[in-house]
């Protein structure tokens, strides 16, 4: 125990042997000295006393002054290169000003780079030193340092930081951890390990060394030596006795294969990690038997198929014989849910000769992955690639909830949640509801099947006001799951608003407007209104407009939303946070008839049809006129048209049967075609056929484009034809028709004809078509034996010219009157 303290002091400049001494008790922790001279330096000593005696003295210098201040910080902090070690540094500095007060101590702060904070490393460095050894540092780590000085006034400001300094490397503290040693063949093993922690490497990891040695058959003596060496913590004692090592010069590797081992021998393996400074302590030894190796190939042809909603069947083939490395003892089947491997992985072991297994107690309609490994006495082979399959569907669980909303006296909206475990693809839901007690003596059970998994609500509208109903909901996959049930009364809930009043409806040409007045508010303010409609052809109320603002007292319904010819009734329901209130009194039934636009009236459609018909008739008539006009203009459009002359000779044997046919001229400004004179033995006059359909004349300025030909009836005929070249070389024969028809004054009246005519060069001469330069005329066919046999178009005078001085040749006959045709 401390017996007290002794305090001694003197002037620093006086005799060092002249002290003033004062003793205080053991409980004192401070002492005040008075009567000192100002602006002088005093030396104080403090000594503690125990029962044994006085202890070591502590000395301090004190200056008595009123002008004291904080000291200056140390400066020129430096760490020379020779002062850098792996776990400590030597720091040098220069002391700053004392501030007219003696320094008491220095404080050292350190910061570990790159992201460390400043921490106090040493807080009591003596005031009279200028170097300090900084210990407790980490190898191969960068630091910065700073200091501050302290006197009786207080601490100085912090000094400038030193430059970053990195400690040297040191040997690794820890070895790698051997994870497994697996025989790969009958003479090799695969060593797998885990890299040591980064903070234990103490530098840059260069690689690893694997030490292995063969264990003797009787290793009792060896084991004793090994235990003693372990107690002495000497690495060489463990790994140098008959040991061989392999160096792995890559720090990133985590496995290595030791080869060329002896069969049927036991080996001990240890590992160390090393850097440029040295090796770490050895790892824990691992023993392995060499001679049998684990299979080097996984099972083959793995097939996974679903048997039921909770069973998968797995089949496989054994690994190839040359890869089994011994006798296969069995297989390990690892299986898990595809999305939950860590939480659901399981292992099942099957022994030979089975190559088929059923995985049971699985989750319905869930994908699973399966891997297989073969094993023998040496260990497990490599795993196969995952194979997957999904279990079959089963009935789902019940819906997660069943709730009701929009409850009125005759309807309710039923909602439900999807099942937590669907166990398949949801195909729909089944909703069943019935009154808990018979209504008017009838208990009706209604079943509604909702197809599809997306709709999870149902609006029920056929409830009886005030009755309580039981609802149940079931989900459907391959079958229906268990139901969830709940009861509801078909009446507004307590606190709901009352029904709106003063209902009325007005109609315009485009819309219906529904008016109402707010009823009882209920236990909470009205949050909106719902408009329901009931068509006359259905008889069921249905929501028509939802969530009308609470401030509204009317709403307009466009007539386009209503079906034409159907009468509608409307009612309004007020809504607050408690639910739907009682519906209002329905409005009067009003038919949704709107004024149709004029283009939908029957008379407008009839007028449009008549106008269309008239337009079609006008178009057809215009096309016909255009066609006839083109036809009449085609004949005689050129100024130089050739005259086609045809000669018809009648023999004495009878009449010649002739036909006049038309053909279209397509030669250049010429009517010359191949013609022939056919002689008949004498047909009767009735055998003559005349064609007056094609008339070639200049009538009203329109020239027809057809030419007239005379053809003979198919009787006994001798025919001679002229070629086109013959017609081209032959000069047109003079005809009295052309002669007189070329005179415009002649054909105006037959009374103007001269008394005498020139003889016609050829009996029965026939000419057609004058040139386009002549005025309109009517062509005729003239014979020498007739005075009135010329044919003219209906209503026109016939111009027939006969030479009275000319007699018909012997055997000739007078042609039939009117034997002519014009085109």
TrEMBL record:
Organism taxonomic ancestry: Eukaryota, Metazoa, Chordata, Craniata, Vertebrata
Bias kind Acidic residues: ranges: 718-729
Record SUPFAM superfamilies: Fibronectin type III (SSF49265)
Organism in which the protein naturally occurs: Perca fluviatilis
Matches recorded under InterPro entries: FN3_dom, FN3_sf, Ig-like_fold
Name of one Pfam family that matches: fn3
Transmembrane annotation, as ranges: 602-625
Protein name: Fibronectin type-III domain-containing protein
Biased composition (Polar residues): 390-403, 814-823
Location of the region described as Disordered in the Swiss-Prot/TrEMBL record: 379-403, 708-730, 789-823
């Amino acid at each position: 125990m401390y017996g007290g303290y002794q305090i001694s002091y003197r002037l620093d400049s006086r005799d060092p042997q002249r002290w003033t001494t004062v003793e205080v008790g053991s409980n004192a922790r401070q002492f005040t000295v008075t009567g000192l001279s100002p602006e002088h330096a005093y030396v104080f000593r403090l000594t503690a006393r125990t029962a044994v005696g006085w202890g070591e003295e502590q000395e301090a210098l004190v200056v008595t002054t009123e002008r004291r201040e904080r000291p200056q910080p140390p400066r020129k902090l430096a760490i020379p290169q020779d002062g850098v070690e792996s776990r400590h540094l030597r720091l040098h500095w220069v002391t700053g000003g004392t501030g007219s007060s003696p320094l008491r101590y220095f404080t050292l702060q350190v910061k570990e780079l790159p992201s460390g904070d400043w921490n106090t490393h040493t807080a009591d460095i003596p005031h009279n030193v200028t170097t300090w050894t900084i210990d407790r540092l980490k190898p191969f780590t960068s630091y910065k340092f700073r200091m501050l000085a302290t006197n009786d006034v207080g601490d100085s400001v912090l000094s400038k930081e030193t430059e970053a300094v990195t400690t040297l490397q040191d040997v690794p503290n820890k070895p790698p951890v051997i994870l497994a040693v697996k025989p790969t063949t009958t003479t090799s093993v695969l060593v797998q390990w885990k890299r040591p922690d980064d903070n234990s490497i103490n530098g840059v990891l260069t690689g690893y060394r694997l030490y292995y040695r063969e264990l003797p058959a009787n290793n009792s003596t060896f084991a004793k030596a090994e235990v003693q060496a372990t107690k002495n913590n000497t690495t060489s004692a463990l790994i140098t006795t008959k040991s061989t090592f392999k160096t792995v010069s890559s720090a990133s590797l985590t496995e290595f294969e030791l080869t060329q081992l002896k069969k049927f021998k036991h080996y001990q393996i240890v590992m160390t990690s090393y850097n440029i400074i040295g090796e770490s302590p050895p790892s824990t030894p691992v023993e392995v038997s060499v001679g049998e190796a684990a299979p080097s190939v996984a099972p083959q042809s793995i097939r996974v198929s679903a048997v039921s909603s909770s069973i998968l069947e797995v089949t496989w083939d054994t690994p190839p014989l040359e890869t089994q490395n011994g006798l296969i003892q069995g297989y390990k089947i690892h299986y898990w849910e595809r999305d939950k491997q860590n939480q659901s992985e399981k292992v099942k072991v099957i022994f030979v000769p089975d190559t088929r297994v059923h995985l049971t107690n699985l989750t319905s309609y869930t994908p699973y992955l399966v891997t297989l490994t073969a094993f023998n006495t040496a260990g497990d082979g490599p795993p196969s690639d995952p194979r997957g399959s999904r279990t079959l569907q089963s009935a789902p669980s019940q819906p997660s909830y069943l709730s009701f909303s929009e409850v009125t006296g005759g309807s309710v909206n039923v909602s439900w949640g999807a099942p937590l475990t669907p166990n398949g693809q949801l195909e729909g839901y089944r909703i069943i509801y019935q009154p808990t007690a018979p209504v008017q003596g009838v208990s009706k059970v209604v079943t509604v099947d909702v197809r599809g998994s997306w709709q999870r609500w149902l609006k029920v509208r056929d409830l009886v006001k005030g009755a309580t109903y039981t609802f149940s909901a079931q989900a459907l996959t391959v079958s229906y799951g268990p139901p969830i049930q709940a009861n509801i009364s078909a009446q507004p809930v307590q606190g709901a608003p009352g029904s709106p009043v003063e209902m009325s409806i007005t109609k315009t040409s485009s819309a219906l407007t529904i008016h109402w007045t707010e009823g009882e508010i209920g236990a909470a303010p009205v949050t909106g209104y719902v408009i329901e409609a009931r068509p006359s052809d259905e008889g069921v109320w249905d929501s028509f407009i939802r969530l009308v603002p609470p401030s509204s007292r009317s709403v307009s319904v466009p007539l386009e939303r209503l079906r034409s010819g159907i009468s509608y009734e409307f009612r309004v329901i007020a809504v607050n946070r408690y639910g739907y209130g009682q519906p209002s009194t329905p409005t009067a039934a009003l038919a949704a008839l709107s004024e149709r636009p004029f283009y939908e009236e029957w008379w407008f459609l009839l007028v449009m049809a008549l106008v269309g018909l008239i337009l079609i008739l006008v178009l057809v008539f215009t096309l016909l006129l255009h066609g006839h006009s083109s036809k009449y203009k085609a004949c005689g459009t050129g100024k130089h048209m050739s005259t086609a002359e045809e000669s018809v000779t009648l023999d004495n044997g009878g009449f010649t049967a002739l036909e006049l046919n038309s053909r279209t001229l397509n030669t250049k400004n010429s009517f010359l075609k191949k013609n022939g004179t056919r002689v008949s033995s004498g047909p009767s006059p009735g055998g003559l056929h005349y064609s007056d359909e094609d008339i070639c004349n200049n009538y009203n300025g329109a020239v027809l484009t057809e030419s007239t030909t005379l053809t003979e009836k198919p009787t006994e005929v001798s025919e001679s034809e002229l070629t086109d070249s013959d017609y081209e070389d032959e000069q047109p024969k003079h005809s009295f028709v052309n002669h007189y028809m070329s005179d415009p004054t002649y054909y105006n009246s037959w009374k103007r004809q001269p008394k005498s005519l020139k003889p016609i060069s050829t009996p029965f001469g026939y000419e057609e078509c004058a040139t386009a330069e002549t005025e309109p005329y009517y062509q005729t066919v003239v014979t020498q034996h007739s005075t009135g046999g010329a044919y003219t178009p209906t209503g026109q005078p016939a111009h027939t010219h006969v030479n009275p001085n000319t007699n018909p040749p012997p055997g000739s006959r007078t042609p039939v009157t009117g034997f002519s045709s014009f085109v």
